[in-house]
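Protocol step 4 of 5: obtain the predicted structure for the target chain.
Materials: sequence only (see below). No template structures provided, no constraints applied. The aim of this step is simply to have a reference model before the mutagenesis design in step 5. Sequence pasted as it appears in the construct record:
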Amino acid sequence: MIYGDNYNESEIDALLNMADENDDGVISYSEWLMTAMNRQKILTHEKLEAAFMGFDVDKSNSVSIEEISNFLFNSKQINEDLLREVISKVDTDKDGDISLDQFKKLMFNLLS
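Step 4 output (structure tokens):
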């Protein structure tokens, strides 16, 4: 099974729209954190998988720092060094990308 193969674009859009609280079309760092902080909204397998697929623009079943940066931080509210530091904590194979399992671990770590 390919991650997210049973989700259609409207379901992923709905999840992303849920996070975009001010409806400006960009998920700012603070909106992302607020959404991540609400475990009931985001920390289900299905929703984490849909969010992961939203980040995985090239459909490689892994998410790169560039994909996350382009998706979340167009507002420049966080620097790339900090993002790399956060990602490195879950990137156990040190390939610079994170898998779905690593993404889930990242989300749980952010909430711990």
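Step 4 remarks: Strands lie at 63-64, 97-98. The mean pLDDT is 78.
Proceed to step 5.
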